[in-house]
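ok so i was messing around last nite and threw this chain in just to see what happens. nothing serious, just curious
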Amino acid sequence: MKKQKYIIALLLTLFCFYSVLYASQNRENPPLNNKKRCLITIAATAAKGDLSTLKDALHKGLDAGLTSNQIKESIIQLYAYAGFPRSIRGLQTLMAVLEERKAKGINDPTGPEASPIQNDQPKYDRGKAILEQLTGAAEKGPKTGYAAFAPTIELFLKEHLFADIFERDILTYAERELVTVSVLTSIGGVEPMLKSHLAICLNVGLSEEQLQQFIIIIKSTVGKKEAIVAQKIFDEVLANRK
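result:
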């Protein structure tokens, strides 16, 4: 009898210990919240051109508490990776969804507009500084690769993508990177860029567990093939960090 009580007490102690440990780990690596999950689905389906699924994703995003400006910003950003046609069709779908909800008496919050940029530095320097912050590495030495071959696109990248777009404060860097990897995964054929941005995701505070969750969302909303590619590239990113 005493032995049984001892075993039960020991099991309860172990259970409490592992419960506390599990809770602690979850606090350190919380799952993606509902808003971020919705941003992934919105960006991925808009980039894919799956407007029917995008419409459902927009309803869920608004129901989850995303403002129309946050959603609008994510769809605007995707044009830099998937082109104007996909972005414009995404915005048109968002307009239709907002009108539909308004007709039903649902008044979705617009949310704050982007704050004015208070920075007198040249736009190229601002974009370069933001990119260095995202990657965690300073850009030194002469340009190589595509930047040396086509300096104009490197100029556009710094001045427009990382200054004009990423400098806007409607979305955080982590949210913008989730949008970016969602788009890149959906359009396919851009594995080097996807690899770079998955590494950036880790640099801006997203955890391995959250990015694994991102891949699961991609599998369910975009496709198994895209998720397999994303998993392979993410495994390479993790291996390089170790």
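not much to say yet. The two ends are 50 Å apart (CA to CA).
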